[in-house]
Amino acid sequence: MSSSDWVALGSLLVSGLAFAVSYVAYRLQAKTARSDDEKELADQIAAIQSSLAELLPPASDGAVPQSPSMQTFAKNSNVNAALQTLLLRIGTLIQFADLKPDWYQNLVLATAAVHIGDPVTAGPYAEKAVELASRPGARGWNPQTAAIARMLSLRMRASYYFNRGKPDDIDNARNDFRQARELIRNCADAQGPFVTAAQLAELYVRQTDFELDLGHNDHAAALMAKACRQWHETHAPAVRQAVGGLIYGYAHTQRMVPAGTLLTSEFVTGWEEFMRGLGSAAVGPQPPAAQPAAGLSDLHPIRVSPPDGG
């Protein structure tokens, strides 16, 4: 080979090496960029979690909750605006970086979108959360973890359905709540009776809230009767106080129906006795007149206090 041939071959090798180095650098840069995108997504999800936490009310001790102040209303409005901005930013990031949020990220995003009343944004996240939670084998979850993940996902999707309100959504939402409660019952042996009762009561109360919004008062009373039954079946004092406070406190925040119509007579009597046993003053109104005690399986409202304003 002549000297010019060697020079040409050397140039070719150098060009090939430069191409290989450039390709590797490109791949590393792409990998780094994706890592940065995923980190940004995680950071934005954390910001949404922090915003949602600001909206959580303090734990109930059984006292009748007070109406929110204007200061609280203004704060919640600001938090909702921040959530809307975060959701828009995350949606853009997911689309242009072609990211695949995991189960928990979809759940958080759906929660935030439902909270601010944005079912268009919430729908895909809620559906994806249920889908991912239904494939526990791919994530190495044990049966109990898988059941809880599915319960949380179904509960969120039910909230989405209730808020969207299309013709079949009410039935779909109720079916999701039923499935969620069945999952909790199936975990009873692993979780124990106390956690199971608390989770079931919370699901009944949560569905009650939607039923009342839609004017289904009899259905709401039926669900609260079942929540009251969970309280009666719980014997640990701390759990009884938490579950009873949830039920009693929720009933007295309602203005769509008289508070007492959501509670069974047995629950009101038992709850007041329980609270006096803890050294607290009697909570809530006494029944206006002696009435025959209704069974806990009764599906109709049970009057234990006069309606507001006569």
Radius of gyration: 27 Å
From the structure provided, what is the oligomeric state, counting identical versus distinct chains? Answer: single chain
Mean pLDDT: 76
- Shape field: globular
Helix content: over 70%
Decide which structural class fits the backbone: mainly alpha
Biggest pleated sheet: none
β-strand percent reads under 5%
Low-confidence segments, given as residue ranges, are 6-10, 16-28, 58-65, 281-310
Instruction: Tell me the total number of β-strands.
Output: 0
* Terminus-to-terminus distance: 110 Å
Order of helices and strands: HHHHHHHHHHH
Helical segment tally? Answer: 11
Structural notes for this entry:
The chain is globular, with a radius of gyration of 27 Å. The longest helix is centred in the first third of the chain and has 53 residues. The protein has a domain of 119 residues. It is built from 11 helices and no strands. The chain is mostly helical. Helix 1 runs antiparallel to helix 2, helix 4 packs antiparallel against helix 5 and helix 5 runs antiparallel to helix 6.
Summarize, please.
With 310 residues, the protein is an all-alpha fold.
Ordered list of secondary-structure elements with their pairings:
Blueprint: H1 3-55, H2 70-97, H3 103-115, H4 119-133, H5 143-164, H6 169-186, H7 188-191, H8 193-213, H9 217-232, H10 237-251, H11 265-277
